[in-house]
Structure formats: C-alpha cells, structure tokens
C-alpha cells in the first residue's frame, strides 16, 4: 500500500517540478514585451476568451434542444463491450431502475445496439438483470474515439472526437442529468451549456502524474515508445504537450457537478488535476461477489489451473504472464522430482479475455505465437475469448491463482473476482490492487499485518516466485489465504456500489420525475 509520504511526493512533483518549464515561459513574457504591453496582451486574450465563450454559449443554446426533465442519460459509446467499465454502467442503470423507476433512462451508445440486445448482454456477461425499458440514442460516429484512428497526437484528437460524438447524441435529446461512465471529460463544458447537470464516474484519468513522470524520466512504456524515450528533445516536447493537456483536462473536469472515482489511486490523481473544491466520491466498482463467494474454496482437481482475466489490450501485459509462467515451469524442471515440481509442471494457464476488434485479434495472435516460442503448448496455455458469464464463473471456480499484470491499474475488478472465487491473486504492485484490494487482514490485536490475501509483484522474477509459491502451497495454507481473500472481496459487492452510487448522484436527481 502506498505510504502517505509517497503520495505527498507525487503531489509535490506534479505541482512543482513538472510545471517549471511552463512557469518559466510565462514569467519571461514581461522581460520581452514590458509590463504595459504584457498587461495589454493579457487583457486582449481574456477579452477574446470571454467573447469566444459567450459566442459558443449562444450557439449551443440555438443548436441544441432544452433538457428533458426526468430523463437520465448515460454516455457510454461502447456499451456493448464486456469489460469492467460496462459492468459499472449496467450496475448503475440497475440501481436507478430499482430505486427510481419513475425516471426515464437513455443510453448514448453504438447505432447497432438495442435495448433488448444490451439487456441480454448485461445478463449473460455480468449476471445483471436489466429491464429493457431504457432508450438507445445512436452514436454513428463512435468509432472516431478509437485510438487506432490517431497514430499521432492521440490524446488531443481523441478529446476533440469525444466532444463531436457527445454533440451528436445531444442533438437528439438533452437529459436533465448526464452521467459519464467512460471517463471522457472533454464534453462536460458542452453538456453544461445545454443546461444539463453532469455526473462523472472516472475509471482512469486521461492523463496522470505518473504519465508525466515517465515522460520526464524518459522511461519507455506502452504509451511512451522507445523512439521518444531515447530522445531528450522529443521527451521535452511530449512533456510540454502532456502538461498542456493536463491543464485542459483539469478545466473540463471541473465542470462536473458530481465526481465519482473507482479507487484511492484515481481519487488522488483526479483531486490533483480537476479544478474542483469538493473531493471526489470514492465508489468502488461492482463485482458479482455473492455468486462467486458461493463457490467452494477447496479445489479438488486433477490438474491445477492458473487464470488470467483481462481484455487483450497492450497495457494488460499478457506477455509478462506468459514469460513468468514459462519461467516457473523451467524452475520446476530444475527442482527435479518433488511434489512442488509436479504441481507446477502439471499446471495449466488459462488466458480469458475479450477482443474489441481487429487490433485486439492481431494482438491475441501475437500472444499465441509468443506462447509457442516459450514452449508453452496448447495443452499448457489455453486462450478463451469473449466467454459468457456462466463459463467465466466455472473457470474462476476451478483456478487456484489469478494473474494481473497491468501497471497502475485504476482498480482491478478481475482481482476482486479472483478473491471472491477463492483464487489467490497475483497482481501488479501498483494502482488499485496495491492501495485498495490486495491488503492484509488486520490482526485482532492491532499489532502488525495479519493474514495475507494475495501477492503483489512488479518483475517477471517476482511473478515467477509467486506462481511457484501459490501452485506449490499445501492445501491448508492455500485455503487460509483464499479464505482471507474472499473476506476482503466482500467490500466490493454489487449492493454496496448501488447504494453509494445513488447516494452520490442523489443531489442531481429530480425529486419527482415529470411525466
């Protein structure tokens, strides 16, 4: 878990060091133009901004309809997806349907979706019963949001696209309350200008202090390639670009009437970035803990299973999981004839995830090829794509361990599902898993950490160690860890999410919906 001093260091880093270039540039303006000219320039710029905002406000009032009272709109362009964000959407819809049936719900999403098909998907994928009484507002241009469309300046171009996509839906109907469950903050000023209130549920900040730090430190990652990281000039330009985007992101985020976040990690970053006085509400995302906790903890299988549940996206780092599993097998072979070695060599890895399109399918094929290069045959590693809820439920019930390897995962719903099902989590030592989920049980006497609930790792070697330890555990020890993990997972139930969600947005909902 992150210590307070570490969090303070991040705050200090963001508020001081990362802003030195911008502050220096602004302070040097009077040296070039003089105080009077600088004051004149500032006055002209401010007057221009005010005139521009007024013109945009008048244009919005003329081009968009008035808000319809009693209508709650959810902005979720890819509502037909199967990830944790979609589970949040449908749990929120269910919460409103159950607590406020007098309200009308509209969902801004893809044009190929219907209320019936979306309700069926919510039931089959998430075990959430949704009444198909809501209306779908089609977003024909939602594919403009896909990052593949913007190989350069992806962040700013996606931001502009999100405003265009939102405007397309708002021209059809403006709700009294606009609930964004995707994290696209840039349409918020437009929504507010139409007269609607804005509630935001943020899974992951568009830009974070960690992203700024990695660019400044020239660390190569999936969103900071080696070409940029190896060049001081390119890194400097990218850092300036990120700083400007952070300023803009903070301004538009401040337009939200209510802000909710899914983890302590996200709340810290949003509190730093968004121009809001009120601290965001911490509303943990929902997990189907009740159904998973009904599974038996005792795994009496002929073969041991290790599972990974994550969409096949680059940030999920499935390559690390494959390499760690291959390294665990290699270590077992060196151990020789022993019960631990036999358990590891007989274990199977199941990678379960969703594919959103051609890019994800190509990435899945690359993973299959990597598995072959690591001598992991189809008998050892199995890929399961877009599985229904019932099958996922069964797979989780058979697994002794669950892998998670995304750096700075905002929350980590799959980690909660592992724990609820009784699979020992082996998660990345960052973000939500470290700060909110994989925490040791407190001791009854209050002295020191209690029973561990899982493992936190960063490197391939650490993941290898954890896999070897969990798979080779004795039955009694594994059951103790699994039982503690299951108790911890109870904090992230569907019911808790729905209650806290309604409490957070309640101030925006009309007391009585007009017919």
Characterization of this structure:
With 515 residues, this protein is an alpha/beta fold. The protein folds into 2 domains: 65-286 and 496-505, Glycogen Phosphorylase B (Rossmann fold, 3-Layer(aba) Sandwich), CATH 3.40.50.2000; 289-492, Rossmann fold, CATH 3.40.50. Helices cover 51% and strands 13% of the residues. The protein has 22 helices and 13 strands. The chain has helices at 4-15, 20-27, 29-33, 35-63, 84-99, 115-126, 154-170, 188-194, 209-216, 226-229, 232-253, 264-273, 289-293, 318-335, 339-346, 358-373, 389-398, 413-421, 431-437, 460-471, 475-489, 494-505, and strands spanning 67-75, 104-110, 135-139, 174-180, 197-202, 258-261, 281-282, 305-309, 348-353, 381-385, 399-403, 424-428, 455-457. The strands form 2 sheets. Strands 3-2-1-4-5-6-7 form a 7-stranded parallel sheet, sandwiched between helices. Strands 10-9-8-11-12-13 form a 6-stranded parallel sheet, sandwiched between helices. β4 (174-180), α8 and β5 form a beta-alpha-beta unit. α9 runs antiparallel to α11. The protein is globular and about 80 Å long. The protein starts with a helix and ends in a 10-residue tail after the last helix. Mean pLDDT is 85; it is low at 1-20.
